[in-house]
Amino acid sequence: MSDGGNSALGRKAFKRSRSHFTDRITADGRDGWPVESGRYRLVVSRACPWASRSLISRRLLGLEDALSVAVADPIQDDRSWRFTLDPDGRDPVLGIRFLSEAYDRRETDYPGGVSVPAIVDIPSGRLVTNDYQQITLDLATEWTALHRPGAPDLYPQARRDEIDTVMEEVYEDVNNGVYRAGFATGQKEYEAACAGVFRRLELLGERLSRQRYLVGDTLTEADIRLFTTLVRFDAVYHGHFKCNRWKLAEHPVLWAYARDLYQTPGFGDTVDFDHIKRHYYQVHTGINPTGIVPLGPDLAGWLTPHHREELGGRPFGDGTPPGPVRPAEAIPPQGRP
Hints:
This protein has 337 residues and is mostly helical. It has 9 helices and 4 strands, in the order βαβαββααααααα. The chain has a 4-stranded mixed sheet, sandwiched between helices. The model has no long low-confidence stretch (mean pLDDT 95).
């Protein structure tokens, strides 16, 4: 997620920029960035759905020791993502105040905004990649030597074609669709995007009425990508982005599916509702000029029984759940149910 001129949102046509830095960190280091424990730092905002994918993947795969994480302040200023949550407003590992400094060390005057997730090379302080679509796929497939024992296969070879198809549909109509609706500049543009969101959600609901997970009987990358939009739906997309034909909590199948994932280790324990709400409502001044953050919705429902286990499925396949969240990465009480 990029800053992209927040005051202009809702005043000009929305178009998501492509990732400009698409180097890959791979087992063979073919782009010059080999997988290496402790070498890289993952920079995220807990508010951002694209960055949240990488937080979930990192935890499910047990990469906490291999890939450290920096959490940016959910409220940006004119220099975008900043490390004001850290002592002295400086990331303790990279030594920088703004993520843009790592971008500048890689390329000055690059096109596009400063976006998360981003992976930074710690020794040089240079940005390696901000390719949000590829980062999690590489964590699942290129970082396998550093996965924890019992880590799930989130992108199984035999299912990749189906996973890719589902993810493409989810991205176009849901992940990005809510933004096209929320940042629309005209009625027809908004109505087309909003209709597409709910049309796809209904189709996904039909699919998930028959099976516990999107592809096969285990968790995959497809579930991660849908979850990060669903978990924000009632808190911000329903009101702030005007995707309000119905609430997630009013759709029995999708609400149960989202709660199932939320209660699975690695998903809900990475979600910070406080960061999510404050970022969307306070930063997007183009569509919420007052900056008022709503009190609701009530978050207690996320912890209620979902009964999805009745559909079978094995969340981690032949593997095991991740262990407890490390105290330094735990979500403060105000950010969770």
